[in-house]
Structure formats: C-alpha cells, structure tokens
Amino acid sequence: MTTAPTTTRMRPSRKRTMLLLAAPSVVLLLLICTYPLVYAAIQAVHNGSLINTGQYVGLQNFTLTLPTPEFRNAALFTVVFLLAGVFGSWAIGLGLALLLRMPVPGAKVFRVLLLLPWVMPIVVSATAWNWLVATRDSPLPTIARALGFGDVLFLADPTLAVITVCVVKVWLSFPFMMLMSSSALASVEDSVYEAARLDGAGPWQRFRFVTLPMTAKSTYISWVLMAIFCVNDFPTIYLLTGGGPVDATSSLIVLAYRKVFQDFQTGPGVAIAFTMTFVLAIVSALLFSRIRKADVA
C-alpha cells in the first residue's frame, strides 16, 4: 500500500522567526539602495550643485540636456563601446573556451595566464596600454612607422582612439566571458556531441545546433552582466583618453562625471545618469526575456 506524498508546511512560529532574522538585512539593503536613488532623483529636478540643492526646475535638466549634440555623441560612443565590449569579448571568450576543451598541452597554465587581464588592477592595465600606444615613440606607433604607415597616433586621432578604447575593453573583458562560456560548456554532455557526430553533423553544425542552443541561457546572462559593465565603465575610458580627443571617446558615464564634478552642474549630470539607468534596465529586461524563452536549461 502506497501513501500519497505529503507536503510539509512551515510552522507559523518558525516562519515569523525567519522573517524577523531576515528583516534587519532587508531593511539595511533597502536603505542603502533607496536613499541614494531618492537623493539623486531630487538632484535631477533641481539646478543645484554639489554644495546646495538649488531651485526646483522639474524636467528641465532632461529636456535641455538630452537633445544636445554633446549627449548624442556620448550616447553613440556608449552604444559602440557596449557592442564592441559585449560581442567582441564574448566571441573571443567563447573561442578560447572551446579551444581549452581540446587536449592542448599546458591548458591549465594557459587558462591561468588568460585570466590576467581581468584580475589585473585597471590602473596597471591602463598604464601598460598607454605605454604601448600613447606617444609617437611608443612601441606600436614605432612599429607602424617602420612598416610605412607614417605617424599613427592611436590616442590622438578620434577614430583610432575609439578603436583603441574598444580593443582595450575587449582585452580586459574576454577572461570573464571565457569563464562563463567554460562553465556553460562543462554542463553539456559529451554524448550529445557524439550523437550529433553520428548523425553526420560537421563541426559548424555541432557548434550552431548544439553548442549555441545548450549554452544560450549562460550566454544571455553574460551579455546582461557585460552590458552593465560596459555602460558603467568609467576608469577604462578616463585613464586612457579622458574622453578625448575632441570628446570622441566620451561615454555617458564620463559625460555625467564631467557635468557633476568638473562643471558642477549636478542636475544635468544626474539626469544623464538616470537616462543611462533607464535604457540599461530596458536592455536587461529584453535579454532576460530571451533567457526565459531559451529551450535548454
């Protein structure tokens, strides 16, 4: 005789105890998150500075700041920086993760070395890249001049500066994507690839119809995280170019910093930051909807 499974319910006294134990942490977390958000919202609708709140101006900080060419250029560079950072680092990270799954001699050593760009302090990385490209006598401009390309000033030319900053971001971020991809690939059984191989699937077909679908959820999560990292990445840009030349590499976070801490226009700076947060929330929501629609867990 079999008995039907019974579901154990938490006793009311135990439930109350757990809620009471969790309450201090929840309240503290809400205070930490809510106070800066409320204070920033107040600053966004006033024309004050770092010292005083100023007069109430409503949405004027948004309506006057967002349509400016300065904001549009910063938004455009932010999109370019985000796309390059997310998809460039993902492509390289996934490729390296697939390569390290093969029986490569010294794979463990390479895996540790490939993590160095991510774990290295950003000040050290920015200093190293400045040494490589910043001046006419730096190694890369010297090599370019020896190859007949003339004086290639990577951080003085607007187009080259954008490309250089994006390359540095990819270099800093691909280890994170490699780790995410490696963990996702580790969850795929070898028998799945063997079955696909027996069905006649080639390497590209196995990658397209097995690897990508079965790692889709991890991929979307890594895209969300990397999108947040890229939009909020202030030190990489500021330490390399300071937003120059001629604001070519000025992202929204750099522009917000300039407005608040250099021009002492707190309202417009916070308005830019709120706009960034709103757009980033939309992008994250879209990617999370893709996570829910992924067929394979």
TrEMBL record:
<keyword id="KW-1133">Transmembrane helix</keyword>
<comment type="similarity">
    <text>Belongs to the binding-protein-dependent transport system permease family.</text>
</comment>
<dbReference type="GO" id="GO:0005886">
    <property type="term" value="C:plasma membrane"/>
</dbReference>
<dbReference type="InterPro" id="IPR000515">
    <property type="entry name" value="MetI-like"/>
</dbReference>
<feature type="transmembrane region" description="Helical">
    <location>
        <begin position="152"/>
        <end position="172"/>
    </location>
</feature>
<keyword id="KW-0472">Membrane</keyword>
<keyword id="KW-0813">Transport</keyword>
<keyword id="KW-1003">Cell membrane</keyword>
<feature type="transmembrane region" description="Helical">
    <location>
        <begin position="269"/>
        <end position="288"/>
    </location>
</feature>
<feature type="domain" description="ABC transmembrane type-1">
    <location>
        <begin position="75"/>
        <end position="289"/>
    </location>
</feature>
<keyword id="KW-0762">Sugar transport</keyword>
<dbReference type="InterPro" id="IPR035906">
    <property type="entry name" value="MetI-like_sf"/>
</dbReference>
<feature type="transmembrane region" description="Helical">
    <location>
        <begin position="112"/>
        <end position="132"/>
    </location>
</feature>
<feature type="transmembrane region" description="Helical">
    <location>
        <begin position="74"/>
        <end position="100"/>
    </location>
</feature>
<dbReference type="Pfam" id="PF00528">
    <property type="entry name" value="BPD_transp_1"/>
</dbReference>
<keyword id="KW-0812">Transmembrane</keyword>
<protein>
    <submittedName>
        <fullName>Multiple sugar transport system permease protein</fullName>
    </submittedName>
</protein>
<dbReference type="GO" id="GO:0055085">
    <property type="term" value="P:transmembrane transport"/>
</dbReference>
<feature type="transmembrane region" description="Helical">
    <location>
        <begin position="220"/>
        <end position="240"/>
    </location>
</feature>
